Amino acid sequence: MINSLIVATGLLGLVLLYLLAQASGSTSLLSDHYWLLLGLNALLGLGLALFLGRELLRMRRAVRQRVFGAKLTLRMTTLFMLVAVLPGILVFTMSVQFLNRSIESWFNVNIETALDRGLNLGRSALDVLLANLASRADAAADDLALASPATYGERLPRLRAQLGVRELALFDGSGQLIAVTTRDAGPGDNAAPHLPATLDLDPQGRWQAILPTLDGKGLELVVAHRFDRLGWGSPLVLLATQPVPELLAADADAVEAARADYRQLVLARDGLKSFYRLTLGMTLLLSLFAAVAIGAVLSRRMSAPLTALAAGTRAVAQGDFSRQHPIYRRDELGILTALFNRMTRQLAESRSAEEAARAEIEANRAYLERLLTSLTAGVLAFDGELRLTASNQSAARILEADFDRLGQYPLPEWLVWQPELEPLVTMLYQHFETDGDWQQQVELTDDRLLLVRASRLPETAGWVVVFDDVTDLVHAQRDAAWREVARRLAHEIRNPLTPIQLSAERLAMKLSPRLDEAGADFLTRSTDTIIKQVAALKGMVDAFRDYARAPAGQMTPTDLNAVVSEVALLYESNPSVRLALCPHPLPIVADAALLRQVIHNLVVNAQDATLDVPGAMIQISTALHANGIVLAVSDNGPGFPPEMLARAFEPYVTGKTKGTGLGLAVVKKIIEEHGGTVHAENLEPHGARLCVTLPLSETKCEAVTS
């Protein structure tokens, strides 16, 4: 930007100097464009003054801001300004005095008098020639006044020769040409002469004038004389033309032009002085500007290596060791630059080694983090003050905790934010008071079981805790144990039931004929009781058998809505059972018979829960969710007791006075065999809902979704 401004200002200054040279040689140009040139000079001066002021303020501001090299730049710029200004002012003062005296010397009174006398002399010479021509024309007119008109053609050439004029022409009173004679007529003199348009005869009938020639290259003397012809009618006009000598005409024109130029110069004298002074002042400003520019450029060039080293030093202080500066000099600054480059290379090599070591540490840390992330078990690390130092995603998922917030507090204060962790926090705090590794199982407030293992870290006196949610494992072990118990019970109980039933039937058949009516009636009632209880035991044994053995389902594509509708036909006589099915087909791959058993068990469980509820309502609904197909059976009964809600699907857990307590356990087993899940929840203000989630058939997902 500064370089462009310097070039533009220099070009503008050269243009103004050229205009000055042109104007000094032409007073008319100076007179016509004085104000334009004055305005251009003033604008250039103002622009230069503003620029100089701006540069000085910028330098001063840089000095105040302690910019490196600013003081050196300002000092050198000031020196250059002084070097340029002091001689410039001296030259300016002397030049102004010289110009004033020179211009005043141009306007000498003797010169003006000489020009006037020269002009008068030329005019006097022309007047003498014109008077001489007029006297000769009078003589010719007197001669023609006495002559006959028939002799005009002969007399005019003789008279022209006698008078020594170039041309004689004779006109009548109306201006019509009568006769003409011309000496040395050239190719351009064929045109007939005519009376001048400015012809104005005086009372004596005479007129004379100095007119330019027809080709405009010279002057000619023209005299007109009107005379009366004696006895020949109206008067005639004699027109005599004589060219002015070329040397005399040229001298007269030169004197006239010189006098006009001199008068214009006199009028522009003050303007010349002002313009020359402004131009000299502008030259001084240009010199000052050049000095400032040169000083700034040179100071920057001289301080550039120091500034670069200062910037590099600041970069090194900020941790940037990549700076390498080119070496342009062989002096001390070059040596200093080379030493700086060597220092930055060594620092960069040290940093590279450090970064490589740090990268290796980060890689190991990232590997450990990936390892912790991939673990399904939760991992927590504590320091000696029992503050959390590390955790993985599984820990946050299992405990449903925000460790970003809990990590800001020691372990005992976690209960302020998540009181449900009280069993775990209490156990950890108690064991952290002892040394050695330990393992223990803890039950959370939501009935989940955690298996916790901890080891002390000898380096930091901290602890690392690993835990896993074993609720499903414990439930699976419990289910397996219950299935084994159910299998053995079914086997041990079923074997004697058939002989007992057969024996009771045989006793009734053998003894009834031998007893009287009262005895036979007693025997019949007793054997019927035995047979009914045996049948009830068989039903319980069948339930044990169904729970103990894995259902051998035949998985086929089916529509859940169709299966629900089939089961609902069995309860169409019960007005409390209502359907709310999804409007779209819900394709699944399942065993339709086992699904019917599931739906039947859920509906029966809801009916048992609403036996004593006025206005009982049971709703069977299906829906398509993002995670699969949901089958829900809800009722408006009393709901599950809070202590039984988490264990509702365990064997022999029931709130009813009758039944085996295996219905919901069988439901869970069948649904899990289908790859689904089931859970129970209480409704507000009362009621319960059992939700079954089954995976959607992959071959039908796209069609159903669309």
From TrEMBL:
Record-annotated membrane-spanning stretches: 35-57, 78-99
Entry-linked Pfam families: HAMP, HATPase_c, HisKA, NtrY_N
SUPFAM superfamilies (alphabetical): ATPase domain of HSP90 chaperone/DNA topoisomerase II/histidine kinase, HAMP domain-like, Homodimeric domain of signal transducing histidine kinase, PYP-like sensor domain (PAS domain)
One GO location term (cellular component): plasma membrane
Catalytic reaction list: ATP + protein L-histidine = ADP + protein N-phospho-L-histidine
Keyword Transferase on entry: yes
One of the record's GO molecular function terms: phosphoprotein phosphatase activity
Topology within the bilayer: Multi-pass membrane protein
Compartment annotation: Cell membrane
Segments forming domain Histidine kinase: 488-698
EC number: 2.7.13.3
Domain (HAMP) ranges: 300-352
Cofactor(s) annotated in UniProt: Mg(2+); Mn(2+)
KW Nucleotide-binding (keyword) present: yes
Keyword annotations: ATP-binding, Cell membrane, Hydrolase, Kinase, Magnesium, Manganese, Membrane, Nucleotide-binding, Phosphoprotein, Protein phosphatase, Stress response, Transferase, Transmembrane, Transmembrane helix, Two-component regulatory system, Virulence
Gene3D superfamilies linked: 1.10.287.130, 6.10.340.10, Histidine kinase-like ATPase, C-terminal domain, PAS domain
Entries under PROSITE patterns matching the protein: HAMP, HIS_KIN
Record-given protein name: Signal transduction histidine-protein kinase/phosphatase MprB
Organism of origin: Laribacter hongkongensis (strain HLHK9)
Organismal lineage: Bacteria, Pseudomonadati, Pseudomonadota, Betaproteobacteria, Neisseriales
Gene: atoS
